[in-house]
Design brief:
Structural class: mainly alpha
Radius of gyration: 19 Å
């Protein structure tokens, strides 16, 4: 998160830094992001940047803590026309792909998925966001007459579905698989979860 100096920075300069960061984050995955490119595009001295943020990760987390609500909105939208948690996951997949390809911050979100690593994912997925996802799974589990009996199982099912979702999106954007192939694989994995191995 930003240092106090950033909050006291003149609004126009603050916006220029954020706009430059958004531009950089929309073009490059996390490991290729350059603070030099960000500050050079707005003629900011390197020392000034470190008055506002501790490092690249600090800036990245700040930007995505602002925009990660897009993902929560996807979750809320996905639940509206869903009867099962599998439907929710399917709807989220479709919404995320559509948004990444066509939405206002689609390039930003696409680079987020391309550059996602476990450390960043854990820091971004704060307790509130994780609770929101678990709450959705719990609600649909209750509607399905409590087929999942233990809270720990709900967390594990949540993790499993999130991993399938992220893996499929990564296949599309990182491995450049055809969307039809990615969808077929994604829905096949969801069927395995839904029906069980045995």
């Amino acid at each position: 998160m930003p240092n106090k100096a950033f909050m006291h920075l003149e609004e126009q300069k603050r916006k220029r830094l954020i706009t430059s960061a958004l531009n950089e984050f929309s073009k490059y995955p996390y490991d290729q992001i350059s603070i030099n490119r960000i500050i050079q595009s707005i003629d900011m001295p390197r020392g000034s940047f470190y008055l506002y943020f501790n490092d690249k990760e600090d800036l990245y987390l700040y930007i995505f803590s602002t925009y990660h609500n897009i993902l929560i909105d996807f979750l809320n939208n996905a639940t509206k026309n869903s009867k099962t948690i599998i439907d929710v996951c399917s709807n989220m997949f479709e919404e995320i792909i559509e948004y990444c390809d066509n939405g206002n911050y689609g390039a930003l979100l696409k680079m987020f998925f391309i550059g996602l690593n476990h450390n960043i994912e854990n820091k971004l997925m704060d307790a509130g966001s994780r609770d929101e996802v678990i709450k959705t799974v719990t609600l649909f589990n209750e509607q399905a007459h409590q087929r999942i009996q233990k809270d720990i199982d709900i967390k594990d099912v949540t993790d499993l579905l999130v991993n399938i979702l992220i893996h499929s999106i990564s296949q599309y954007y990182i491995m450049n698989f055809e969307l039809d192939v990615v969808k077929e694989h994604f829905y096949h994995q969801l069927k395995i979860v839904q029906k069980g191995i045995y």
